[in-house]
Amino acid sequence: MSEISCSLCGLPVRSPVTVDGTDAVFCCHGCSNVYQILVESGSYTPGGDPSTNPIFVQAKALGLLGNPSATIDASPTPEAKIEGEGGAVDDARQCVLRVDGMWCSSCAWLISHILLKRRGVAAAEVSFLSDTAKITYRPAKIGQDDLVAAIDSLGYHAHPMGEADVTDPRMRRRRSELIRTSFTFFFAMNVMMFQIVQYAGYRGQGVLWFLGALSAIVVGLSWPIFNRAYQAARHAHATMDTLVSLGALTAFAYSIQQLLTGSHHVYFDTACMLLGLVMVGKFLESGVRAKATDALTTLYGLLPRKASVLHDGVERPVAVEQLAVGDIFRVRPGERIAADGIVAAGSAGVDESLLTGESRPSPKAVGDPVTGGAIVLDGALDVSVTRIGPEGALAKMIALVEEAMRTKTPAEQWADRISRVFVPSIIALALATVAVMLLSGHTAAETMTRAVAVLVIACPCALGIATPMAMAAGVGAAASKGILIADGTAFELLCRLKVLVLDKTGTATEGQFAVREVSGEMAALDVLAALETRSEHPIGRAIVRHAAAAELPPVNGFEAVPGMGVAGIVDGQCWFAGSLRYADQQEAAISGDLLARAKQHESAGLTVIYWGRTGAPVAGFVALGDSIRAGAPELVSLLAARNVSVELLSGDARETVDAVAATLGVTRRLAGALPADKAAYVKQRRDELAGAGIVGMIGDGVNDAPALAIADLSIAMASGADVASRASQITLLNADLRRIPELLDLARQTTRIMHQNLFWACAYNAVCIPLAMFGVVQPIWAAVAMMVSSASVILNTRRLKWIVREG
Length: 807
What we know:
Elements: E1 17-18, E2 25-26, H1 29-40, H2 54-61, E3 93-100, H3 105-117, E4 121-127, E5 132-137, H4 144-152, E6 157-160, H5 163-166, H6 168-199, H7 205-221, H8 223-234, H9 240-260, H10 268-292, H11 294-300, E7 306-311, E8 314-319, E9 328-331, E10 340-345, E11 348-351, H12 353-356, E12 362-364, E13 369-370, E14 375-376, E15 381-387, H13 393-406, H14 410-439, H15 444-457, H16 461-480, E16 483-485, H17 490-495, E17 497-503, H18 504-508, E18 514-520, H19 525-532, H20 538-547, E19 556-561, E20 565-570, E21 573-578, H21 580-585, H22 592-603, E22 607-613, E23 618-625, H23 632-640, E24 645-649, H24 654-664, E25 669-670, H25 675-689, E26 694-699, H26 705-710, E27 713-717, H27 722-726, E28 730-732, H28 739-773, H29 779-806
Parallel strand pairs: 17-24, 17-26, 24-25, 26-27, 27-28
Antiparallel strand pairs: 1-2, 3-5, 3-6, 4-5, 7-8, 7-9, 9-15, 10-13, 10-15, 11-12, 11-14, 16-28, 18-23, 19-20, 20-21, 21-22, 22-23
Helix pairs in contact: 1-3, 6-7, 6-10, 7-9, 7-10, 8-9, 9-10, 9-15, 10-16, 10-29, 14-15, 14-16, 14-28, 15-28, 15-29, 16-28, 16-29, 19-20, 22-24, 28-29
């Protein structure tokens, strides 16, 4: 038995690897993937010599050919953990590059391997579908320019997802598409005009041959349609390009056959106008898709590429990717802030409208947080970096929007399932039409015309773009209002919202507590402040501000119990601070007089914190006041008008919660709730609705995360803890609760448009396909009808943007 050699590298094959649709055999997956890239790029003919091809040369140099172990592993190495709070240049960073020129998924495989071979690259995730490469690397060992060069060396073109993506590559692609589409439509119109001569009765063969030549040019210019159909067929799939290709090539081939036999029954106009109209429709559709994702593109372009870092009072330009936590950089008027940080010096008004949707400038002074991407309007700021790379607020926004746009809604999943069986069904109907026509004695010309009409009119263009286009437009519109949608299903969930559970502290109220009264052992106030310095709760910060002590005693063994209080050892004694329930757990008795005064404050809507030593009488209490968040009362009334009820949850005492509920106009509330109690309450409300609607939860703190996770729909305030944002499907960037009714209206409008698109796309096919089968619609008018159906979906989706703008 003769030894089998690899079809690419020529080495002996021990464990053969094959590629569907070819007779080639390979020694490893590396050779099979590189082979597919070479063939599909058109730079290599099977059986030829690939040794001079740059892709082959690079792959061989990297050891990807003839290597059975060359399998992709894009998982980070143990030392590649991204240090969001680190300060060393050697900390791993992430970047996202746009990669142009990938021909298939094997290209993504090859790029991943090349990147992973580079010193300093820890992980590489390359997506053929989104044309992106997400790379984890160490700036001390390799720079972003080196990563771009590594990809470019293979013949692809890589560039950062930023301003370059908004201009050159995108504009070049659009310009190329415009030129191709314009020439295709121009020649198709010429075919139509010269075909009129034939319809008028002229039978000269010279004109018909001229029509054939023009039609060949149109077919050649339309090669992207045929290429996509071919690639789908190679993988045993059928798409709308399959239907267009079958219809156009059938009409063209039949016309050539008629021309060669001397007949005058040609249908070049049908083939050419079909291709011309489809090219025009796809060009318009790609433009609308690009506009629908403009919000994401804009976010990528917000951060500058460099920052002016201060070293010993001297400014030095540094690439943003080289910034480390603790670095201080200067921002002048008109410049964008390079990274999240705290103002270290200066004061200025900052425009955060692209991040929060709030048009009014936000004043910033020393100690105030600032977000990367915002614009300094007046004055200059020195900013100390607090978060870099993927930990930054803007990076998280981009990740949320990307995830939302990738998420398929139930309606979109349904459309995908329909599309998968739709095209094969149409091909079967076209073949059935041919069989019936021939058996009933119709001519070949009549049979061909009717089959082509069926193939053309059934192209599922409108069905394919009905839901994703509306979804992208809705997510972009929400982002423009300062609302991040992390899950595409949130729109449909919002439409079914019946109950919105509202957390009190930091959500219904501002969370900016101020001490109104201190009662008890004043000498022990420093101990209370020392405990609260270890707490992240707004109440703790208010107590520390009120104490204003220059020096506080050290705290050991600190413990924080969410929803209850804090405890620790100070000067050898165990102290606590928290709710009355927590005081009971600490076995601290409270006198009747102290309790009566505390209850008076709680009935007035204040929050009371008890403190003392464990096992001893309560030393005193602190009464703190919070203010109702602007827009909270309007939220309750606006949602009531939309048949959504608002309910209140809090860990505070019943009297405090009752006072806030009365101000808001909320009738159903729960006080003294621990995190587990909040989650149980949300689950109970879900069970009570029993499918008649869904329960939403909005919160901002760590103790809200369990309830957010169990709710049907979760909304987090961006001002709250990160864990709350990670547990939510929607994030409010500007903490304006009045955005929620606007979001509800947007969700209903988006879902309504989505369903309208699906209805008209399905209705169009249900009506037009039978008309084509019975010969009522000719192929040329079928092409027009197909384009009109897609245009109706596009215009209906654009209507969402007009509605948002008017609102």
